[in-house]
Write a structure and sequence with these properties.
Shape: globular
Mean pLDDT: 85
Structural class: mainly alpha
Low-confidence stretches: 3-33, 137-144, 426-440
Domain Cytochrome C Planctomycete-type: 55-113
Number of strands: 8
Radius of gyration: 28 Å
Number of helices: 28
Distance between the termini: 33 Å
Largest sheet: 2 strands, antiparallel
Oligomer: single chain
Protein name: DUF1553 domain-containing protein
Organism: Gimesia benthica
Helix content: 40-55%
Strand content: under 5%
InterPro entries: Cyt_c_Planctomycete-type, DUF1549, DUF1553
Strand order of the largest sheet: 1-4
Domain DUF1553: 504-752
């Protein structure tokens, strides 16, 4: 591996790396309707319940005596503060009085007993986030949501029945390739604007490869498409799209999007005690998701398998195992420390309700755990109607990394088919549960023979129960019992009936996938549009509630939802229709008038330039260097580890498979991805944050991974002895950027090669090593350019 950058190469890097666009700091005091949905969810799920339970009795408008003259029931009350000053300093938890008081550092709040370390960490994170707070100036008295009149309330658009609008008439009918285009063009014509020109074939082929497979095209693939496009144009695009949809890499790309929604992780995450126990069997769910997208499992079936796969019939042992693995969707969530949490069982239920409501319906149902929802038509009784379904379900996560204070041990699904991957016998590694049984005085309850294939998931409990309302979210303070059921404001013509014979999970899946459910299809087509355009039709993809954004093209959203359902809930078919539309094939470059008239591109007059996500960036680097192993990886690095993440030297073992197969530990990201906005996998995430931080530039400069791949890239460039320096530069540009350099770029690259060669002459005694180092400088420069990291 090369040494650290020399002064000359360091100067080159400063010039070669395209500067990131500046981002403005978000104001935590912004209007609540503009708050990021993830910030709102964090406050509602983590902060508000604690303030209500622990602080309002002494620090609210209803307090008999206002403690320290500090109001904590409004946003501005905490900002102004009390006798000791403001409660916090945004972004600086160590300087915030609130955090000092929670830590019992000088001040002691709450005075009766300290909060758990996990809750304190939530408040620290809240301050680090900038204290996002959706509360209004004056506290609003809770009122029962108007579920009966939801359909008549214009604010509750997502609860309205999905309509089947006819594509509107447009002036330029010949411009439209698909009805999608007519919905888009109609808005543009009404605004008296025009679309930009079509994307160049080079930009289009690169866009299609990344959008459908997450990988860049090889130089030969670009050349093949360009030749076909020159003769047949739309037929060439159609042929390429069909080829990419049939690629096994499609499932790796689109499966990763679903894993974000499913809050996929291979460890529990920090449980509040600094522990991060592993889930050594979670990877089977990852592989299920990838295969489901490759097989184009209808979305309604895909959801049903994940919610109630154990209740479905199967023809073969392999099919039975697949359905059991699918239920890992409900089991892989992060768990609190059991010994510290009297609400443990209800916290598990809350996670399951949240992943279904947010992930499938785009609604924050979990906010109704402590009280009727503050703004959406979701009473607490609806929350506990769903809770009964999951209280009647046994969640199976196994034995979480030999740690008695975390989630208690449960059984696992035993897979019966003989085709499942397990650690080979000659690996010298015994199954996790047997290893623990040998090392602990107190043996686990569930010990399986060596070589047993196991999976996380759920199954029915023997006793089916309805849930009682937990007053203020406390499982020890019970109110009236609520029959199991669904959301009352989501009107379905023939909702399935629940009986005392089963939990109701299968009926829940049937309700969600009913032909007239108002949210399910809309939410999914909105997610698909987001990943193809970089922005969704509803720009808050996880929030279709009152405070979520309204759709920019409501008729188009409903058209896509109807089309999605009528075409068999086929994800591939919907993606195919969208990418073959003229709207998708527009350029991301446009005239100044268009940019000035619609800077946010809400009208879709152009395409959006997008930065590669973390996985695609790493995979593209490996592809350019020639080191990408395109075969699926088997198993996981943690499949045979029984220690805590923070007690193991390194579970992120190097491999050159695609990034989706890296070990995805909560709060311990793969080092090659950690700088580029991976979600923390504790909550469903439909749209990742896109930050611009110095650590990203430092990664591109100094990462051992990038330096190593640049060396391999250089060796590829130098491998053909017939090429001269200009030929090698052309090869490097084609591998990295899918194009050849222009004359100015070629001249600069030649100058760089000569200058670096002279600078390194005394540093390397062997000429061959020096040649690699010289060319690796150019290669690393190409890998860090904006052009490499962005898709037009």
């Amino acid at each position: 591996m090369r040494k650290l950058l020399t002064p000359l190469t360091a100067v080159y890097w400063i010039i070669a790396i395209a500067f990131y666009p500046a981002i403005s700091a978000r104001s935590a005091n912004k209007p609540s309707k503009n708050m990021h949905p993830q910030e709102r969810a964090f406050f509602e799920n983590k902060i508000r319940p604690v303030l209500v339970k622990k602080c309002y009795s002494c620090h609210s408008s209803k307090s008999e005596e206002l403690g320290g003259k500090l109001r904590m029931d409004t946003r501005d009350g905490m900002r102004v503060g009390g006798e000791s000053g403001p409660a916090f300093v945004e972004g600086r938890p160590n300087e915030s009085l609130l955090i000092q008081a929670l830590r019992y550092d000088g001040l002691e709040m709450p005075p009766d007993e300290p909060l758990s370390e996990a809750v304190i960490q939530d408040f620290i994170k809240w301050v680090e986030m900038g204290v996002p707070d959706p509360r209004v100036e004056q506290p609003v008295a809770a009122r029962k949501p108007d579920t009966e009149n939801a359909a008549a309330n214009p604010e509750l658009w997502s609860f309205q029945p999905v309509k089947n609008p006819s594509p509107p008439s447009v002036k330029e009918q010949d411009w439209c390739f698909d009805p999608i285009d007519r919905f888009v063009l109609s808005h543009i014509e009404q605004a008296k604007l025009q679309t930009t020109h079509d994307a160049s074939p080079v930009h289009l082929v690169r866009r299609l490869y990344f959008d459908l497979t997450g990988l860049p095209p090889a130089a030969e693939q670009v050349e093949t498409f360009l030749n076909d496009y020159e003769q047949h144009r739309q037929q060439a695009v159609t042929r390429l799209v069909d080829e990419l949809l049939a690629s096994p890499h499609f499932g790796e790309r689109w499966g990763r999007y679903w894993l974000d929604v499913a809050r996929y992780g291979e460890s529990n995450g920090n449980d509040g005690l600094g522990r991060n126990p592993t889930f050594p069997h979670a990877w089977r769910y990852r592989d299920y998701v990838i295969q489901a997208f490759n097989d184009d499992v209808p979305y309604d079936q895909f959801l049903t398998e994940q919610i109630a796969g154990d209740l479905l019939s199967a023809q073969t042992p392999a099919e039975r195992d697949r359905l059991l693995i699918a239920t890992g969707f409900l089991a892989i969530g992060a768990k609190p420390a059991k010994a510290m949490n009297v609400n443990f069982d209800m916290d598990v239920v809350n996670d399951q309700i949240n992943v279904i409501s947010t992930g499938v319906m785009g609604l924050s149902v979990a906010c109704a755990r402590c009280h009727d929802h503050k703004h959406d038509p979701i009473p607490a009784s609806d929350y506990y109607a769903l809770a009964g379904i999951f209280l009647s379900t046994e969640t199976m996560w196994g034995y979480a990394a030999n740690q008695p204070l975390t989630a208690p041990e449960t059984p696992l699904h035993i897979l019966k088919a003989k085709t499942h991957y397990v650690a080979p016998p000659d690996s010298g590694v015994k199954p996790v549960v047997n290893k623990r049984a040998q090392s602990r005085k107190k043996k686990p309850k569930n010990v399986y023979p060596a070589g047993t294939a196991l999976a996380m998931g759920v199954r029915e409990k023997k006793k089916i129960v309805d849930c009682k309302i937990n007053i203020k979210g406390e499982s020890k303070k019970l109110g009236p019992q609520v029959p199991r059921g669904f959301l009352s404001a989501c009107k379905v013509a023939q909702p399935p009936e629940l009986t005392d014979k089963s939990s109701g999970r299968l009926q829940l899946a049937q309700w969600l996938t009913s032909a007239d459910h108002p949210q399910t299809a809309r939410v999914m087509v909105n997610r698909i549009w987001l990943h193809l355009f970089g922005q969704a039709l509803v720009r808050t993809p996880d929030d279709f509630g009152v405070y979520g954004e309204r759709p920019t093209h409501p008729e188009l959203l409903d058209h896509l939802a109807i089309r999605f359902r009528s075409e068999g809930w086929s994800v591939k078919q919907l993606i195919r229709a969208i990418v073959l539309s003229h709207t998708y094939q527009l350029s991301s470059f446009c005239e100044a008038e268009i940019l000035e008239a619609d800077p946010e591109n809400r009208l879709l007059c152009r395409h959006n330039r997008r930065r590669l996500d973390a996985e695609s960036l790493r995979d593209s680097i490996l592809a350019a260097s020639g080191q990408l192993n395109r075969e699926p990886a088997r198993g996981s690095a943690i499949a045979n580890v029984d220690e805590l993440v923070n007690k193991v030297s390194n579970l992120h073992l190097p491999h050159n498979h695609r990034s989706i197969y890296l070990c995805m530990l909560r709060h311990s990201d793969p080092p090659e991805l950690s700088a580029f906005d991976l979600p923390d996998s504790t909550k469903p995430v439909g749209r990742r944050n896109e930050s611009t931080l110095p650590t990203q530039s430092l990664f591109l400069l100094n990462s051992p991974f990038l330096v190593e791949q640049a060396d391999w890239f250089a060796k590829e460039v130098l491998s053909d002895p017939e090429l001269d320096e200009s030929g090698r530069i052309h090869l490097a540009y084609r591998r990295a950027l899918n194009r050849t350099p222009n004359s100015a770029e070629l001249e600069r690259a030649l100058t760089l090669i000569h200058d670096v060669d002279q600078a390194l002459e005394t540093e390397f005694s062997q000429e061959e090593l020096r040649r690699v180092a010289v060319w690796a400088t150019l290669c690393q420069g190409l890998l860090t350019t904006n052009e490499f990291r962005y898709v037009d």
